[in-house]
Amino acid sequence: MRKILTFLFLFLTFGFIFANKVLAVCPLCTIAVGAGVGLSRWLGIDDSITGLWIGGLIVSLIFWTDNWLEKKNIRFKGKALVVIIIYYALVIIPLYTTGIIGYPFNTLCFCHLDKLLFGIIMGSIAFWCGSTWYFYMKEKNNGHAYFPFQKVVMPILPLVILSIIYYFLTK
Fold first, then answer.
1. What is the pLDDT of residues 113-128, one digit of tens each?
2. What is the three-state SS of the chain?
3. Taking the model in full, what pTM does it have?
């Protein structure tokens, strides 16, 4: 497992270093989400909160990949759906096969859904909503941000708010 994580880390690091131009969610935003995942696991924070940040990271990577494919003129029917399925499979299948997702005592009491999986779903929705909200507001302001680092703040803000809410709910 460590070899796989090391490979993924190096792959993503070199991808960030040699990337030409990012048209999707900014790299700083993606790094912030990745740091949130690592920090929450290290601190022993509840899996529903960790899942929020994993979900945000997945959506950010989906945006990046979709824009990269567009930039390379790689277009086919169902491209977005294929990218979405691949990224979620790359994250959820290893977590399930290693027993991190599906552990019987790590479920939400009201719906018997795994805490990490629930967090991934909610984090994906929250990050997507924050990103969509940013692009909508930018469009309304003639293509300009309202404040510095708005492109970073708006996708991350829903994750932070939900993290605080989930912290108090699971405490």
1. 888 899 999 999 999 9
2. CHHHHHHHHHHHHHHHHCCCCCCCCCHHHHHHHHHHHHHHHHHCCCHHHHHHHHHHHHHHHHHHHHHHHHHCCCCCCCHHHHHHHHHHHHHHHHHHHCCCCCCCCCECCCCCCEHHHHHHHHHHHHHHHHHHHHHHHHHHCCCCCCCCCHHHHHHHHHHHHHHHHHHHHHC
3. 0.75
